[in-house]
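User: Hey, quick favor. My workstation is busy. Could you predict this chain's structure for me?
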Amino acid sequence: MELSRTDVGHLGYNRRKGGSHLKREVLSDVHSDKLFEQVYDYLLDRIRRGEWKAHDKLPSVRALAAEFGVHRLTVFKAYQWLKQNHKVYVKDKSGYYVQPGSLLPPAAQQDPIVSAYVHESHLSEIHQAEAAYQFSKALIDPNLLPNRYFSEYVKKVFDLYPKVLGTYATTQGDAELREALCRYFAGRYRFDLTPDELLITCGSQEAIDLIARVLVKPRDTVLLERPTYSPAIDVFRRQGARIVPVEIYPDGYRLDQVEEFMRLYKPRLFYINPTFQNPTGYTVPAEQRKRLVDLAAEHQCLLIEDDPCPDIYFGKEPPPPFFAYDTSGYTIYIRSFSKYVAPGLSIATVACRPGLMNYLIKAKSLSDSGTPLLNQKIFLHYFFSERMQRHLEKLRTALAVRKDIMEEELAGTGWEWRSPEGGFNLWVQLPESTPMEELLVTSRERSITFVPGSICDPLRELKPWIRMSYSFLNERQLREGVRRFVGLHRELSGEK
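Assistant: No problem, here it is.
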């Protein structure tokens, strides 16, 4: 289910007319002049995975150009780049062949962390790796949650709703929960919402996926923060979006750059994570939020605001969401409760105006019969309880301690980061000389995981950067794991 230009005309949203026959599950634009890089990445990916062996003949320039619907010069440029990087060689009047030594080692081909770094960049592949020291998981240590209290509420829900397991929720979500969320948002942020303007999803990732499927067609331009939440990059690439990165800084965006991009590229939407941003931890100030909402309305660009952890602040509370400043209907607000309330319930909500909500509900109905009702009822009584609200203060204190521990152990390394005012992560810059692929492989062998910065980058650069989460391990594991990781980096870098 996709919104046509006519469907959203009453809101003034603008769509770019595109047209490309690219094989979109393989290629997606970063900029229009980057297509040859994506052909290059596609060919290199298949070579490195061993789909083409040493000395195998590769498809002709003409055949690949026809398959992807691009100009032959685009494919030729990609092949020339592969040749310069010694991945292929040329035989006169015969074509291109795989250069020996271009394949990844068999062990690396099977390793999910190396696979994510070199190939698809899916964060989920990194999370599949079992490790004793998981700095890759931006989730709460389960021992920090009030688990006994939670189990009591599970029993209570079955008493209150004895038929809950025999009942589907509506596609839009449980009415009682949506009413409670409306009261919560109105009280905390003064949102002007009705229950009909809320959709309950199975976590924020489903919400991002639904929004992308409804709003984005191939060749639509999408603005993404750089760096950003890795699965969002994957989702918009899958839709065939033309991705234009917008740099985020400790003090927010350069609004003159954002305005210029909106004017020049006429983007369909701008996906933002403005509060304790993942992966950087940066927070966009209130004055920029107000201005960006105005720019979005002026340039008819939807703001997709992803807000997964506004309660995890270590000092003052962050500014209200963009949605609180929006009077024109150009903001879609995604609020996840998964990471720090009850990850096992996987509850999130989407807030937007009725014209868009109807399409999101239709898209969700094609995916499932609604978010499980039991999960919604448990969340309703658990999250809004007085005890859980008091427990949030304890969570903030515990995570602030863990952040301090990680920073203490990293002090003296010479690595650079900005201490976040909330959230789950440190965004750390390692020395340029860091052998990143070797660090990934060896860390995995020693039961340590982290997120390489390149998978958080729409341009797939930022190679010296890594995301390290301090939220998932207990204090002892955290201290020991960071020491081991720092020691490993020194070992690989030849430091004493």
